Structure formats: C-alpha cells, structure tokens
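Example record for the data management plan.
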Amino acid sequence: RKYKVISLEELVDYIKNKKPLPGNSVVITLDDGYQDNYIYAFPILKKNNFPAAIFFITDKIGKTGYADWAEIEEMAKNNIQIGSHSQNHAWLPGIKDKKKLEEEITWSKKILEYKLNRPVNFFCYPLGGISKLARQVVVDSGYLGGCAIHAQEGYDKYDIYALRRIKITNSH
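Corresponding structural encoding:
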C-alpha cells in the first residue's frame, strides 16, 4: 500500500520543525509490553525494518504474559523505541496528587533507563487518559513527547505531548 513507516522521533521532529510529513506516513506503536509483542510483532517489524515504539508498564515487566528485560533489550537493539506506559497502568486523570503522578510517570522512565542503559524519550498515557497535570509531569520528566488515543478535546492537534493515535483492537 506504499505506506512510509516512520519512527515516533521522526514524527515529533516533523511537528516541531513544521515540516510536511511524507505521504502515507504511519507510526507503529504498541501498548502495555505484552510478551506477544516480542513473539509475534517484533519478528515482522525486524524483517521489514520498520521502526516502532512499544510502551512498557514497568511493574508488569517479566510477569506472566509480559515481556522480560532480555526481550526488551533485544527489541531496543533492533529499531524498537522503548517507551514508558507508567508503573502500574493507572488512570492518570483520576490522580490529582502531583507526587503520585510523578511516581507513575517519572519513576517508570527512570527504571527503564536504568535497566536498559539508554534514554526513554516517550510516554504513553494508560488507556489514553490524559490530564493537564499528567501532561505537565510528562514534560517536566524530560520526555520528548507523549501519546494518547483518538482526538483529545482541549489539546492542539500538534501538541507533541498529546499525540493522537487510533486504537486498533481485534474488533477493528
């Protein structure tokens, strides 16, 4: 179909520098860090040399059904951008305490960076749930951007900390 798969970093660069995207551009992102990302998606992405971003819930890494550190490291070495999906997959709009948001957002970044010895530049809001305070904590934590789901009311469509995505599930 002649889609051009670009990385999340490339997308943010296009937006920040107000450059037009190449025609038919798509960014591949996967949430939660399930082990099936490693078993099924990763080999296809690698074979086709497609960049992608996978967002991990740090408290789930290595648990049943989730990728472990060795699998994450292998993906990171092979064109997969590793991102944070919080510590516990909490509904962030429901958290009004900034310290609790920092635990979810900032600490997950620090854990991933420490374990993988590489920067973690992107955050994905669990369940697409974004709030002004959560967005600010993402900015303050040093992320280069954040991903949400669908169009978010009250956020500019070019807001790199509220990047819009389309949710694809088995029912699509």
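Summary line stored alongside the record: The chain has a mean pLDDT of 94.
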